[in-house]
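Page 47, continued from p. 46.
Same chain as before, 253 aa.
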Amino acid sequence: MISYEYPLNEKVRILLRLEDLFARMTHFTQQDHSMGHHAALSTLFEILEVISRADLKSDLLQELERQKRVLSNLHNNPAISEQALEAILNEIEQASGLLLAMSGKLGQHLRENEWLMGIKQRSVMPGGTCEFDLPSYHYWQEQDMDLRRANLRSWLAPLLPLHAGLKIILRLLRENGKTFRFTAHQGTFQQMQGGRVAQMLRVRLSRELACIPEVGANKYAINIRFIAANYAAKTTLVEQDVPFELTFCSIST
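Result:
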């Protein structure tokens, strides 16, 4: 099965983008070659751009506090494991504490690093970080891989509380999902919302089906079109029926 997640509001969209970027940053930082570390640094610049556009710290703290209140009300519920409940409440408490300890504007430590900002400015140009453009960056890339890796981790470290907070929220969001099985007749599916509230949709379908879902949703209706997986031709709707799973993911507000 292939899973596709579709955020239904801007807050979840930002969290999913950051989740992907933090995962990519971790992956490339673990590489040994300088090209992997170049990719990691480029990803760090992307993280900086995303966190610069939103009041992310405040949003995360508010959402964590909201979930803490909701979960605290589940104490003494026989259907809920007290041990598991305490574990997630402790995670929320720790993540909130780390976020509260963050001072100043998010990513300011990166913006104050003129060397990094010089690389960031050049990186938006095609091939702009070649050795003749940035000899000091070329020198860094020629250093021992452990030194480069340590630098990357130190630049990322002040932003890790954001990652800890968003991981908890997205985990709760995914775990609070209701899944239904549908069939898109001749590649098209539509359903009225009927008051159902969700912050994210997840579409799962067989890998053997050579099609890709395109989702459009608002508070009234969900529309899904399954497009043929053709990487060169014009976008075309598949003509066959497509069985799929649709999960409505939501957390208490």
